[in-house]
């Protein structure tokens, strides 16, 4: 006779799904969750529908994120909370400028790329160097660096060398400082991170948060226009408002 506890399999599977969604910084599809948890896809869909109905998960266009019932306070889940509100903004930005859209945040002294919204027609850039090592060469990195205090920027640059990624990369500290001081809240990357790719980014501000949104596209299609800058700024302001609303509801 077994002395072990009586376990309910469906509850276990639902909890495993919550763990899988919570451990991801990006929305997770049902197919990915079924594989990760080892549950048949039809059963996964049934469990997900229940979890969404009860508010433990939220279904976005491209996957599942934690729902309002959980409201995780842990720092590692902050970006996922924000994604619930920001993903539609990034999709609209992708569609309006016809390029992959990005969200980067400044966390613990590092620049982190936390989300990418792309499509078959708007593939992302080949991220061959991590965002934390290429802040000087990316549009979203420049947005963040320009908004830091002088002491914070000096600390960042002391810890990250200005790597020569392409012939267009800014590798001189004085030139970079001049660029950052003259860009306002919109910056671009004209094949500085990757040859053949250009990027345009805008600064995002929020309570206790600093980041940037950006769009990348083939350099042959890139034109630095006021219209594109206004689109980026509008998206950045929308993300900033979403971050402020998220802070109020925590």
UniProtKB/TrEMBL annotation:
<keyword id="KW-0804">Transcription</keyword>
<dbReference type="GO" id="GO:0045892">
    <property type="term" value="P:negative regulation of DNA-templated transcription"/>
</dbReference>
<keyword id="KW-0238">DNA-binding</keyword>
<dbReference type="GO" id="GO:0003700">
    <property type="term" value="F:DNA-binding transcription factor activity"/>
</dbReference>
<dbReference type="InterPro" id="IPR036388">
    <property type="entry name" value="WH-like_DNA-bd_sf"/>
</dbReference>
<keyword id="KW-0805">Transcription regulation</keyword>
<dbReference type="Pfam" id="PF09339">
    <property type="entry name" value="HTH_IclR"/>
</dbReference>
<protein>
    <submittedName>
        <fullName>DNA-binding IclR family transcriptional regulator</fullName>
    </submittedName>
</protein>
<dbReference type="InterPro" id="IPR029016">
    <property type="entry name" value="GAF-like_dom_sf"/>
</dbReference>
<feature type="domain" description="IclR-ED">
    <location>
        <begin position="68"/>
        <end position="250"/>
    </location>
</feature>
<dbReference type="InterPro" id="IPR014757">
    <property type="entry name" value="Tscrpt_reg_IclR_C"/>
</dbReference>
<dbReference type="Pfam" id="PF01614">
    <property type="entry name" value="IclR_C"/>
</dbReference>
<dbReference type="InterPro" id="IPR050707">
    <property type="entry name" value="HTH_MetabolicPath_Reg"/>
</dbReference>
<dbReference type="InterPro" id="IPR036390">
    <property type="entry name" value="WH_DNA-bd_sf"/>
</dbReference>
<dbReference type="GO" id="GO:0003677">
    <property type="term" value="F:DNA binding"/>
</dbReference>
<dbReference type="InterPro" id="IPR005471">
    <property type="entry name" value="Tscrpt_reg_IclR_N"/>
</dbReference>
<feature type="domain" description="HTH iclR-type">
    <location>
        <begin position="8"/>
        <end position="68"/>
    </location>
</feature>
């Amino acid at each position: 006779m077994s002395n072990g506890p009586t376990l309910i399999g469906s509850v276990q599977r639902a909890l495993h799904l919550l763990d899988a969604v919570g451990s991801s910084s990006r929305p997770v599809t049902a197919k990915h969750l079924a594989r990760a948890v080892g549950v048949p896809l039809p059963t996964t869909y049934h469990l997900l529908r229940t979890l969404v109905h009860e508010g433990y998960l939220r279904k976005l266009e491209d996957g599942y994120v934690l729902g309002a019932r959980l409201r995780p306070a842990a720092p590692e889940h902050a970006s996922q909370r924000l994604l619930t509100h920001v993903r539609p903004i990034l999709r609209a930005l992708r569609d309006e400028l016809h390029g992959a859209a990005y969200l980067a945040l400044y966390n613990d002294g590092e620049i982190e790329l936390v989300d990418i919204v792309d499509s078959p027609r708007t593939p992302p850039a080949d991220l061959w160097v991590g965002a934390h090592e290429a802040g000087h060469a990316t549009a979203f990195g420049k947005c963040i660096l320009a908004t830091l205090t002088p002491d914070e920027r000096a600390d960042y640059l002391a810890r990250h060398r200005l790597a020569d990624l392409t012939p267009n990369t800014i590798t001189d500290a004085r030139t970079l400082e001049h660029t950052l001081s003259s860009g306002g809240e919109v910056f671009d990357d004209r094949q500085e991170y990757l040859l053949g790719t250009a990027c345009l980014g805008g600064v995002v501000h929020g309570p206790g948060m600093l980041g940037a949104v950006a769009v990348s596209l083939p350099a042959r299609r890139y034109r630095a226009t006021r219209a594109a800058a206004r689109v980026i700024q509008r998206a950045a302001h929308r993300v900033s408002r979403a971050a402020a609303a998220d802070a109020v509801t925590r």
